Amino acid sequence: MIVVMNVVRAAEGRAADFERAFANRERRLAEVPGFAGFELLRRQGENEYLVISRWESREAFEGWRRSDAFKAAHAGDGGRGELSHGNEIRTYDVLELELPA
Q1: Whether 96 contacts 5, CB under 8 Å
Q2: Measured CA distances, 70 to 2, 12, 39, 67, 97 (Å)
Q3: Residue 79 has what pLDDT?
Q4: What's the pLDDT tens digit per position in 75-94?
Q5: Of 54, 44, 52, 53, which Cα lies nearest the Cα of 15?
Q6: DSSP 26
Q7: Fold annotation for 2-93
């Protein structure tokens, strides 16, 4: 399993708009082979966000990035491009995962 994090900052005064754009986006990930989860996190007291996706494998994630569904989901970024800046992608291998019983 891998976790992909995109670190972004909402444009000044646009945090609510940024969050609304994510909440209202067309959701396509659930149908993608190898997709294991999504989270949007806001750093407390900041305009910084982590867009986190979990994947069964690196190949599954790369398949998503090459797909027509990815291109459609990011066409114009649903307005998020004008609402944020500082895009930094980080990818991590999951070495251990503990879930509640």
Answers
A1: no
A2: 18, 27, 17, 5, 27
A3: 46
A4: 655 445 678 877 889 999 99
A5: 44
A6: P
A7: Alpha-Beta Plaits (3.30.70)
Q: Quote the pTM value.
A: 0.82
What single-letter DSSP state applies at residue 25?
Answer: S
**Full DSSP string of 27-74:** P-GGGSTTEEEEEEEE-TTSSEEEEEEEES-HHHHHHHHHSHHHHHHH
9-25 per-residue burial string, b: 16 or more CB within 10 A, e: under 16: bbbeebbeebeebeeee
Give, for 6, the enclosing helix (H) or strand (E). Answer: strand 2-10
What pLDDT, on the 0 to 100 scale, is given for residue 22? 85
Torsion angle defined by CA atoms of residues 11, 17, 54 and 91, in that order, rounded to the nearest 10 degrees: -10
